[in-house]
Each structure stands twice: as C-alpha cells, then as structure tokens.
Amino acid sequence: METVTSVVEMMRAAGSLRREGRTIALVPTMGALHEGHLSLIREANARADVVVVSVFVNPTQFGPLEDFDTYQRDIERDSRLAQVAGCDIIFAPGVDDMYPAGSVTRVCVSDLTGKLCGAFRPGHFDGVCTVVAKLLNIVRPHLAVFGQKDGQQAVVVERMVRDLDMGVEIIRSKTVREPDGLAMSSRNANLSGVERREAAVLYRSIEHAVSLYRAGERSVERIMSEMRDMIEAGETTNIQYLAAVDAVTLEDVDELREGVMLALAVFVGNTRLIDNVIIGA
Ligand code: PAF
Questions:
Q1: Atom of ligand 1 at shortest range from CA of 56
Q2: Of the candidates 16, 37, 53, 215, which lies 20 to 30 Å from 132 by C-alpha distance?
Q3: pTM of the model as a whole
Q4: 37 assigned to active site
Q5: Where are the domains of the chain?
Q6: What is the CATH number of domain 2-173?
Q7: What pLDDT is recorded for position 276?
Q8: CATH code given to domain 186-275
Q9: Other Cβ atoms within 10 Å of 21 Cβ, number
Q10: Are 145 and 44 in contact (CB under 8 A)?
C-alpha cells in the first residue's frame, strides 16, 4: 500500500492508473477508522481495481464550537486498518495543500442542506460538498463509496454529482452496527459507560418505529411520539431532531410509506449521534 500526502502527486498517480485502464474507487474518510469504514473499503475493493482511501479531517465542515481540534487523528493506525481491508492508496493531504491561501470557492447544494442535520450545523454541508468535490476532482474515481449512516450526506452528495455532471457513480453502503444496534461512529469512543449503554436507544427507537409500521401504523406523529418517549427516558439523552422525510427530496412526510427515511440526531451526554433507516430498503 502506498501513502500519498500531496494533491499534485495524487492527481499524477490517479492519472496514470486511469491511462492504464484501471478502475478506481474512492472511499472518503476523516480517519478514526472503525468497522463501518472498513466495510466501505471492502465494498470499494469488490467493485474496482484500485481503492483510494482519503484521510482528511476537513476543517470547513466543522462549526466553530464543534470537535475539529479534538477529532481523533492517528494515520498509522488508520493506514494499518485500511490496508487489511483492501486499500491500495491512502491519500492524506495537509490542510494547506487542500485549502491553500486564497482558496474561497465553496460548493453549495441548496434546499437539501437546510434541514435535518443542516438546520443545526450551518455551513456543514457546504464544507462536505466542497471537500468531496475536490477529492473527486483530485482522484477522478469511477466510483465513490459513502455510508448510509450519514443519510443526508449521501443524498446531498448524490445530488451534487448529478447536478454538476461529475460522472462518478456513488455507492451507498449499509450501516454497520454494534451488537446492541448502535451505529458505528468515530464519536462512539467519546461516550462514557452509562452514555454508551443509553446510546443503544437510538436504534431501538428506530426499530420500534419500523415494527409499528409493519403492524399497520402510518401516522408519523404517533410513531414519533413513541420514539420520543423511549429516547427521553434516558438520563443522558437529549433529542436534537426526529424526522420522517422522503429519502430523495428530504421533504417532511405525515404518513410513513416505503421510501421514507426516519432520521434522528440525539445528544448522548455531550456527544451528538445520528442514525436513520429507509422504510422498505
Ligand atoms: O463522512 C465523512 O467522514 C465526511 O463528511 C467526508 C465525506 C469524508 C467529507 O469530509
């Protein structure tokens, strides 16, 4: 496995791979790799000749009060894990290389980004779209793999790629969960013992909603009220949002049906966790 730390070098390497006729898959990450990321890398490995994993803690997607400074960074550990999962090239550029002085262009996907997480993290998706657009331009992959756990991110990236004719296939990979259902996330490491136990209620409440749906309940209001009661029973859990939206347009819906994404963001202690499922997916 090779490690590339410069944007120009990465463009060169990707250019030669393309000229050799090799298919390239990109897995964009911010490092702190866990089993969820490794499943994205395996998926990429099954679909392309060469897998590039980018490791870049992107400053433009963090708000001023968010955890940019304390985000876990351990490139050696990440490289080891990525290699075992089937990564061929780690791309780990520096902030100054990705955002040289005078860099002012931002990619903004309107409408889809003002709701759900975007409503509470102003500018977050502009930062995500800008860095993903840059990574796609640098690596020029045939496909890029994103996790369903960041459901809104996947929708927004898919829309950006379509709207800007970026010519890359976006693959969504299913959420990997701990045995108690908690979606894998780099931020799970920040939970205390009691918080970790209580965090399992996020997915339990989603599973409960799906079982109500399967039993014939369609009212989002009634389903959300039961989810809210379950989550609020915890001592460390505070709901930021619960939403039922069309999984493509992200418009709110009143009735559950196939193709609706049930999504939530909950603070467990000081750690903000998100999760979602798409009904019928
Ligand atoms: O999902 C993430 O880890 C990040 O938002 C991404 C896609 C790597 C962009 O920085």
A1: 10
A2: 16
A3: 0.97
A4: yes
A5: 2-173, 186-275
A6: 3.40.50.620
A7: 98
A8: 3.30.1300.10
A9: 7
A10: yes
